[in-house]
Amino acid sequence: METGYLAFAMVMQFADAFAFLVLAACGLAIVFGMMGIVNLAHGEFIMCGAYVTVAAVHAGVPLPLAIAIGAIASALAGMVVEFACIRHLYGRPLDSIVLTWGISLVVTQTTLITLGSNMPSIGTPYGSFAVGPYSYSVYRLVLFGSALAVLAGLYIVFNWTRFGIAARATMQVPHMAAASGLDTRRIYSWTFAIGAGLAGLAGGLYAPTMTLVPTMGTSFMTEAFVTVVVGGADVILGTAPAAAILAIIKAGMTYWKGQLFGQIGLLIAVIVVIRILPKGISGFLTRQ
Amino acid sequence: MSRNALLRFRKAALAGSFLVAAAVSTIVPSFASEPIKIGVLEDQSGDFALATSGKVEAIQLATDEINAKGGIAGRPIELVIYDTQSENTRYQEFMRRVLQRDKADVVFAGYSSSEREAYRPIVNQLDGFVFYNNQYEGGVCDGNMVITGAVAEQQISTLIPWMMKTYGKRVYTIAADYSFGWISAEWMKQIVKENGGELVGQELIPLGVSQFSQTIQNIQQAKPDFVVTLLVGNSQSSYFEQASAAQLNLPMASSIGVNQSYEHKRFTPPTLANMHVTTNFIEEIDTPEAKAFVARFREKYPEIPYINQEAENSYLAVYLYKEMVERAKGSTKRADLQKEIAKGDICTDAPEGKVCIDPKSQHVSHSIYLAKVGEDHSISFPAHWDNVQPYWLGQAGCDLTKFDPSTQYSPDNPPPKG
Lengths: 288, 418
Hints:
The complex is a heterodimer of chains A (288) and B (418).
Chain A: H1 2-35, H2 42-58, H3 63-84, H4 93-115, E1 128-131, E2 134-137, H5 139-160, H6 162-172, H7 174-179, H8 184-206, H9 218-231, H10 235-257, H11 259-276, H12 280-285
Antiparallel strand pairs in A: 1-2
Chain B: H1 2-24, E1 36-42, H2 49-68, E2 77-83, H3 88-101, E3 106-109, H4 113-126, E4 130-132, E5 140-141, E6 145-147, H5 152-167, E7 170-176, H6 179-194, E8 198-205, H7 213-222, E9 226-230, H8 238-245, E10 252-254, H9 263-266, E11 275-279, H10 288-300, H11 309-327, H12 334-342, E12 347-350, E13 353-358, E14 363-364, E15 366-373, E16 379-388, H13 391-396, E17 407-408
Parallel strand pairs in B: 1-2, 1-3, 3-4, 4-6, 7-8, 7-9, 9-10, 10-11
Antiparallel strand pairs in B: 5-17, 11-15, 12-13, 13-14, 15-16
Helix pairs in contact in B: 2-11, 3-4, 5-6
């Protein structure tokens, strides 16, 4: 019986790590995979989503709706940033790194100056349940469900909708897409907004479980980048399997030796993957 | 605002110096009213700003109080304040500037141990005199430093025996993975063993980690009687929310938490219920001295979110400095001040109670209060220890009255014998 409880606990931990990796990474993966922009301000879109969500909850909005508002606010912020800054730097990946890093610094410090060093938390909803000697927060299951829903949603949007096909066409051969009548500027803008919105969604979903400070986005960044690097450019074929593999490594190593080794495991996985699969898992799966 | 304050007391100082000059012009030479410069390097922005924002205000409060009563040995205090932005390199930059260009007589600097270790070599090189007004893991044996914060043995040797007596002997430690966490965890291990307890698990958490469900499960598997949390930084404090949401329900003990970043005010109850912290000050302390200090502080700075331990350390540091300079007849030379410290009776009546500088280590004795966080996040004080000495360095062989090694030691790496 004891081993049964432990096995269930391991599955829960895997699901938890998987949800965190997917939610932290998918916005970054879209912006990087489809647009070639390395978005170092990804963490700040996460923070934006979390702050808006918490502000909405404090204003009396129920949590699920507040999370949606947070995600939409981030998407709008993403659109503005894309229009004002990013669109001038397509095809200049190194410059976009410096630019987004600058945005990240400005946003973090502006938030600190205007909103103060922290925001009162809202508490984790939905209670807890116990299986044998281990107890879990129900909200962790919500996070796992949300991660699966996001993956499914992205698959549907990018494979089955008109926008998804237009977006993929634009990313592959922009001038041909433009020649066949697509408004590529608008598609870039929308894609970046989706990436920022997903970051905001991650922030909103994790907001009840975390300390709300202007630098909170940075605690997602290691996991987000590791997942994107291991996964490669394709969101569905890359991020999902990369998150699954990394979740096993992270949960297993943390169970075995604690958080420090969980972190070391993730970083070693990246080094190994870069060495043998330079284009990530999706590059390997879609190789010709 | 600080410029206005500066102008105001320049005027006051000027007026004062005329009066003094008129009254005692035969005894006091005119340079006596030249200000004493205190350099202040604290993190007013960046990751640590939350825990350190009250320090500058506390120094300003003490300065204004002292200046209103005629300054230190007749000289007004002038503050030179820099925002170090929670970055080690800023400390190095500003420490050079404040010692070389501003020629500060003394510098109050630093929050994290890595910040302190970043600037300490520069202080040694330029032979500055620095107060580090922060609790830390202990062990710095350096004649250029006076350390007014509580150290590991003052907080842990009071906390752990009380916890083991009250809750049981099985202990699980989670600690931040850097010098403070490591050395504090080392102390925990030693004191748990001395008191016949068992360390059933220990986990080091890299800074910036914010997800703890696996850690929570590891704790549940080890079945401890209580959990020692030595977590640092804002991401790591997410642990409390997640442990509470998962109904971990174990008593917690810490030397940080509540006393620095006022988690009990920021988190929704009962996230932090059953947390026990040993501290030399928090604003809830119920003595007349502490209450009067909090009232004065709030009157001057109504916006301050919380008056924490480090604010009080910074406040009492100004008074300790005043005491030693006045004993040294107005000299601010380090050698003269250390001669006074060596006599072993540099003390001040701080808001927490009486504190004195230990001449061997140049650390400070403290009143230690055990703060317990209730279900509704109210604070009670089930235990209190007076005059707790920073004993370890002196016993281990650090004696700054004889020799200055300018080194940080730890129980694993004690001073060499002889």
